[in-house]
Design a protein that fits this description.
This protein is mostly helical. Helix content is 79%, strand content 0%. The chain has 10 helices and no strands.
């Protein structure tokens, strides 16, 4: 992913196509981080090509949303046969699917909304489980569209703000590092003085 992101930065003019493509591949359970793609797009928008901010956001939103539909279709039409495929179970286990099925039964839409904020393979398992459970397609489209918009807006906006305030954050980080170093030095000095004084007190006569 780091190599890919570096290449995208060097070819910023076509970044939106690449980000969209990566997210579509992620929907097929390839090991591509949706969060990293969105953060990279937002950072690129705030630091390199601000004129393409809305293009980049649209690309990652559509990529995220359509990749969710891909995962749903995998579950809907692949069914439990997918669990017999080693390449699939490496990313989505039967145990995780059973757990998410119980969440759907209890919480419905809220499972989709909060589940979108959990990385490390939970999202795809979430959408595949919706397909396996035969959630009505239109209901899934509407519920996931709302959840996807919420998560994308929050993550993209946060990454954009951090990217546009990188100098300020770096200055703050430098001051924090200096303060931590000074505190650690003070604690070490106090500890050394205490150790020396204690050693003198217990020195045998």
């Amino acid at each position: 992913m780091e190599t890919i992101i570096g290449w995208i930065v060097a070819h910023a003019s076509i970044a939106h196509f690449v980000f969209f493509g990566l997210l579509m591949l992620a929907g097929l359970c390839l090991p591509i981080s949706e969060d990293l793609v969105i953060i990279s797009a937002a950072t690129l928008a705030s630091t390199t090509i601000p004129e393409n901010t809305w293009v980049l956001f649209t690309a990652v939103f559509l990529g995220s949303y359509l990749s969710d539909l891909e995962a749903y279709m995998l579950g809907r039409f692949g069914g439990r046969r997918l669990l017999a495929r080693p390449w699939f179970t490496r990313h989505v286990s039967a145990k995780r699917i059973d757990m998410l099925s119980s969440f759907y039964e209890r919480y419905g839409f809220w499972t989709l909304l909060f589940g979108r904020f959990i990385p490390f393979g939970v999202r795809n398992a979430l959408f595949i489980t919706a397909g396996l459970g035969r959630m009505p397609f239109l209901r899934f489209c509407i519920a996931d569209g709302i959840a996807c918009m919420c998560s994308n807006v929050i993550l993209f906006s946060a990454a954009y703000w951090l990217g546009s305030h990188s100098e300020l954050l770096l200055a703050i980080l430098q001051r924090v590092n200096i303060a931590l170093f000074a505190a650690a030095f003070a604690v070490a000095a106090i500890g050394f003085v205490w150790y020396k004084s204690r050693k003198k007190r217990i020195k045998p006569q």
